[in-house]
From TrEMBL:
Residues 6-56 form the CsbD-like domain. It comes from Novosphingobium pentaromativorans US6-1. Gene3D superfamilies: YjbJ. The lineage of its organism: Bacteria, Pseudomonadati, Pseudomonadota, Alphaproteobacteria, Sphingomonadales. Residues 18-60 are annotated as: Disordered. This is CsbD-like domain-containing protein. Residues 34-44 have a biased composition (Basic and acidic residues). Belongs to the UPF0337 (CsbD) family.
Length: 60
């Protein structure tokens, strides 16, 4: 169960991060763009955590 939960959270953060990046670029707001990049990276790490849990059987 943890694997899917982490992957879902990761995907949600990646999507939100991409939206923030696009909004920051269109509004010429570097801080919003940077926040979006950070959120996207967080999502990538959550997704990776989910993959590791899947490989190890949720023992992580």
């Amino acid at each position: 169960m943890g694997e899917l939960k982490d992957k879902a959270k990761g995907l949600a953060n990646e999507i939100a991060g991409n939206i923030k990046q696009a909004a920051g670029q269109s509004r010429n707001d570097p801080s919003l763009e940077a926040e979006g990049k950070a959120q996207e990276k967080k999502g990538e790490m959550q997704n990776l955590k989910g993959k590791v849990k899947g490989a190890l059987g949720d023992k992580v």
